[in-house]
Design brief:
Helix content: under 10%
Largest sheet: 14 strands, antiparallel, barrel
Radius of gyration: 20 Å
Number of helices: 1
Mean pLDDT: 82
Order of helices and strands: HEEEEEEEEEEEEEEEE
Low-confidence stretches: 1-26
Number of domains: 1
């Protein structure tokens, strides 16, 4: 249980203010991006593994769309749809092995209800159903992960330019509930030059060089958990699901190219990567670390200020 709580803490606010949907400073309401990673390899492989010495690369493709907000009196409903694909390519393409990743798909809907209860206070309710699968054996109930977040937020400062949110995050996946706390910080300086967002596990800090150009830093813990039910490894152990994760840390550059259309570049390192395989009882069967690798990201988005 301690291990599961630790994992959940790393992801507890991946969807809290998902993709900056409540951000005061930057709102990329729709866009696409591609992230390319350099060559890497699995470490700590068991003896006899077909992946020994098999190097790989992977790309991440993202697309997102925020639907128009709906109002019911003072209550606001916001909906965001996200799609992500992780595509892997290996040196030894003929290797047919359980551990060899191929394509992982994620389809996520973020439905957020916000209701003001005082001048600077609001209550939040967030539902995040996610389908994560390699689609090799059809869909089942285990391909569905459900997140729910309940919390409050408060604005600070004369211009209400600092907002802090906190709440309880509940996740249900593979017949298990996980409960963790969450916190979010959203800031914009009085002169409009600095913008910062932190919602664990994401960090975004940008400096507005001009009204059309931004530079800054960006970091995140990116992970995906998906179904591998009915697989058995070479030692006869049953594999129920897998989790692939990487910590990204880098610098960013964003440029307005026409009105609300922005182009962004990001580059840095993918650190502390891991690929874990779990049993039906949530025990870790395999835990492979992944060599650090450079990455680059390009993005086009439609942004509201």
């Amino acid at each position: 249980m301690k291990r599961l709580l630790h994992q959940s803490l790393l992801i507890s606010l991946l969807a809290f203010y998902s993709d900056g949907i409540f951000a005061q400073s930057v709102k990329d309401i729709t866009g696409v991006s591609v992230t390319a990673h350099g060559e890497s390899q699995f470490n700590d492989l068991p003896e006899g593994s077909g992946l020994q010495g098999n190097k790989f690369k992977y790309n991440t493709y993202d697309a997102w769309l925020s639907l128009p907000p709906m109002h019911f009196g003072k209550t606001q409903l916001l909906t965001n749809i996200n799609y992500r694909q992780l595509a892997f390519s290996f040196d030894q393409k003929n290797t047919d092995h359980l551990y060899q990743l191929d394509k992982i798909h994620e389809i996520k809907a973020v439905m957020i209800v916000r209701h003001p209860i005082a001048k600077r206070w609001s209550v939040l309710g967030i539902l995040i159903p996610t389908v994560a699968s390699d689609f090799k054996s059809g869909l089942s109930s285990d391909d569905l992960i459900v997140d729910g977040i309940y919390g409050v937020s408060k604005r600070f400062g004369k211009k209400s330019n600092l907002e802090v949110g906190f709440g309880l995050h509940v996740m249900y996946s593979f017949n298990e509930f996980l409960f963790t706390p969450g916190i979010s910080v959203d800031y914009k300086s009085n002169n409009g030059k600095w913008e910062g967002q932190f919602y664990w596990p994401r960090l975004n800090v940008a400096y507005n060089v001009t009204s059309n150009t931004q530079v800054g830093i960006a970091g995140s813990i990116d992970w995906t958990r998906y179904n591998l039910k009915n697989y058995t490894d070479f030692e006869g152990k049953e594999i129920d699901y897998a989790q692939f994760s990487t910590v990204h840390a880098g610098i960013q550059f964003n440029q307005r190219i026409y009105k609300n259309l922005w182009f962004g570049l990001q580059g840095g390192m993918g650190l502390f990567g891991s690929y874990k395989l779990f049993s039906p009882g949530h025990d870790t069967i395999r835990n492979f670390s992944i060599s650090n690798t450079a990455y680059g990201k390009a993005m086009i988005s439609y942004r509201l200020k």
